[in-house]
Amino acid sequence: MFLRNIIMEIFPMSTGWTKTILVILVSTLVLWINLRRRKKISRRGEILVDRLSGPKALPILGNALNLRVENEDFMDLIGILAHKWGGLFRVWYFNDPWVNIASADDCQKLYSSAKNLIEKSDEIEITKQSVGDGLYARVGSLYHERRKLLNPAYGLNLVRKGIPKINKHSAMLVKTFRQFAKSGENVNIYPVMTKSAIRLVWDSLFEKVYEEDASDVSDYITAMFMSSYHHTTRIFKPWLRPNFIFNLTSKSKLASDGIQFVNDFAKRSVDERRIYLQQKRAFSNRSNDKVLNPLEDEENTKAANDWDCYLDYLLEQQDKGLIKEKDVLCEFSVFTIGGYETTSIALTRALYLLASHPEVQQKVVEELDEIFGKGYDASTFDITMTHVKSMKYLDLCVKEALRLFPPIPMSPKKTTEDIQLDDGRVIPAGVQLFVWMYWVHRDPKYFPDPEAFIPERFSQDSDFYRERATYAYIPFSVLPRSCIGQNYAVTTMKMILAYMIKAYEWTAVTPRDELKMTFQYVSHPTNAILKLKPRI
Ligand code: HEM
């Protein structure tokens, strides 16, 4: 069955004897490769892993067949396994041990005792092969060096420079939704949010505003979707795992075409911006020639050093010789991909949850009316950082939406040394560690009635804060590898939601128990259908 699947992936048209011969050939090859593959952990490590609870493993395949489900059902499968084997359980993926963390208590134990013994998982090799060795995929000292270099550009600077752009794109999004508000038509908000988020990210990244229907916008989104879909499919279809088999399939071609597009786009955009900056500098030098006042001259030099967008900062680092062109291209893609997919998923989920809880939506309306006055006037509505800080209740809603639906539902890690938990269990060095935020955030000990959308559970006097469960809620993962765009992301979410709620009244069409998602490292919401009407 397993081998038949391999054959069908590679030679979909083969029949009869050809198929049988191919099955024998491929089976010999797969067996040979698996036997030759060096185990990633020691014999002692293997024994320690087997002491952890988990389903019985087969020789060679391990538990690979237990993970064979449709993509849409993967998250539920992890929940079922965690229910049966506990919040910390192991599976063998061929001869690779995977330890899963799916309860808040286990996550708390792990990170509070050993967060410095955890690195990125080997699974990020796929990211490295596709968009290169950027901040996201680096490990060890190379990582720390790059993060230090990028920190000034991501931090408050990004938020400060971002506010006018977020206002501009939020107002455009209100306009886009107007046709649905007028017609009363149902709308799947995710594609709309995705297009808006990528245009905002590019505006912040390299100051280019794309039209909503620009082919680059839809081509980029499709390219990323295809490539991540086909790469993650390799988790559910273990026979596609070995590179030499995957590379023979049509899926590999689709995935690599997607990555090619992403890389070409980065090159094209970076080259374009470099030329623009050169022209800007030449123009500013010519103007300076005419200015004799040395004080003004100093002002101009300072202004030229002060970057306007994230890409300018990267190019400045390249000019200083601190990074190479390939690093600029790679960080360009990391910013784009890291920024738009997560934010659009988070916004879709948050708006869906507000739409399905009119009483919570009403409280947000009241808070916004208090801050901005009643009504929404597109010509004057403008949000400042002070406004964002005063949106306290909306902040709780954002936190609760990220709890229920963390856009990155799982963080792939690896242990660098043995980790001794306080209950005697040991997770040995070299083990792939998957921290399932989606399930950690559903631990009833810290989040009673976990499926319910209750923003108040994040108010300062709630049980959650009393329990001091720092690692029970980690939508942005955990330092030192937490999300570098976190402040920007939360500010964006609060601002866009404020625009959406001020302008429209939202109602959910898809019932909560029919909500679907696909797992592609991020969790794409596939059917968040809403209705909207202008708010009176
Ligand atoms: C609601 C929105 C967001 C969420 C929930 C989110 C979540 C995360 C998480 C969980 C990680 C760690 C991933 C892992 O452990 O494998 C991460 C890393 C990262 N995020 Fe975000 N993110 C969001 C928005 C953004 C934005 C807007 C940007 C860029 C502007 C960004 C850039 C990055 C980068 C570059 C990393 C890698 C950081 C490192 O390894 O040091 N993220 N994000």
UniProtKB/TrEMBL annotation:
Its cofactor is heme. Signal peptide: none annotated. Gene3D superfamilies: Cytochrome P450 (1.10.630.10). It comes from the Eukaryota. Belongs to the cytochrome P450 family. InterPro entries: Cyt_P450, Cyt_P450_E_grp-I, Cyt_P450_sf, Cytochrome_P450_Monoox. This is Cytochrome P450 4c3. It comes from Orchesella dallaii.
